[in-house]
Amino acid sequence: xxxxxxxxxxxxxxxxxxxxxxxxxxxxxxxxxxxxxxxxxxxxxxxxxxxxxxxxxxxxxxxxxxxxxxxxxxxxxxxxxxxxxxxxxxxxxxxxxxxxxxxxxxxxxxxxxxxxxxxxxxxxxxxxxxxxxxxxxxxxxxxxxxxxxxxxxxxxxxxxxxxxxxxxxxxxxxxxxxxxxxxxxxxxxxxxxxxxxxxxxxxxxxxxxxxxxxxxxxxxxxxxxxxxxxxxxxxxxxxxxxxxxxxxxxxxxxxxxxxxxxxxxxxxxxxxxxxxxxxxxxxxxxxxxxxxxxxxxxxxxxxxxxxxxxxxxxxxxxxxxxxxxxxxxxxxxxxxxxxxxxxxxxxxxxxxxxxxxxxxxxxxxxxxxxxxxxxxxxxxxxxxxxxxxxxxxxxxxxxxxxxxxxxxxxxxxxxxxxxxxxxxxxxxxxxxxxxxxxxxxxxxxxxxxxxxxxxxxxxxxxxxxxxxxxxxxxxxxxxxxxxxxxxxxxxxxxxxxxxxxxxxxxxxxxxxxxxxxxxxxxxxxxxxxxxx
Length: 532
Description:
Strand content: 15-25%
Radius of gyration: 21 Å
Number of domains: 1
Number of helices: 16
Helix content: 25-40%
Distance between the termini: 26 Å
């Protein structure tokens, strides 16, 4: 595919501190999370603060209008916890709002196209968002700081506005035609009709005011109070069937992790509706077929490819449909000095979600209706108050003898689980450090008829894999993201030193260690954060 496109390679160095670390797809969000550790918060406070900050620095991926999962490991009780805050369809959802159109391309989930792409773009593609309820519940149950404290840096970032660099301009340009359909989104992201250009900060509508209300009144106002009324007013004016009753009915789900075991290490994932079942099945195949003493080479990559294909095959049969071929998500991870860890993945689904910004709140909204089949009679068909029941998100925490070793996860639709699997397996099978595993070239396989392979794995690996699979030889690039975008943290159980690192090919990604948060000047970096 692109083996000769670029002739440079990029690596990143993990940050380290005995006091903790945070890793994310945007370095400023990582610094916000690390500031919570500096203020006496724990890993959950750090992860939630990081997630909130992404509203103002990575709004194309996630935010208040999104949904996801957080996996928590508590060092004090030696227990794992999952909060599922996936979106929910309104009670009034109707199939006749989404008439099929054979001339419209399939959705990212492989479902038939509908007239005007109403399940992918615009107000009728929006589900009740779970992010505020899920993130605030994580703070209440497992954090140490209040929501008002956690939101302080994000409010400052929102007041400053989105810092536009070349990467932000790229993200806006990729969705420009769809953003132009919505008046508020167009005015924010497409000034003068073109994508916002670098070297400026752009105002994110009424986001700052919304965050201030949320900090002052608490998360209930989002679902049954002041903000709920503003949100529903905008949604219904745009044609959504979401009501105040739907908002009030929303609840996140709390349960124990789905847990497997690999090389004597417990693998805690987000549950049956996440990418976790595929991850655990693939690790079981690796345990049965891989001899780590033979080292990393053609045989190990063949086993990894077989494991991924087998797990995806089982998944496709289980859910009775095709799987996601594109999508935009954000993953972050945090660890603190006491051995608590958090792995958090959340999303707007597509890039910029529904490409709708609610005028009263400045919230960019999800397009999670696209995750449901617009035809009746299928396992994922739309139904009143139904939640997403088959996600690729795969936040994962590895624990040995009651002590958390690492927390990893990724963004990138179908690429998420293969990436998470390989980072974890390289560490557990071959003893690589987090930094080494993150920088190591990888493959991608999802039972799609071919295996993608990074040419940096070398000719012996490519030759061996080519004898068994149809190969797509493709470098790891900034764009498109062909191997996912992972973030992770780890903790050395002997020294207590914590490490954090984000995907080497993510130019705005980074990790941070505890330090006071100072609003960065345009183009500057916090001393605690590492971008490259």
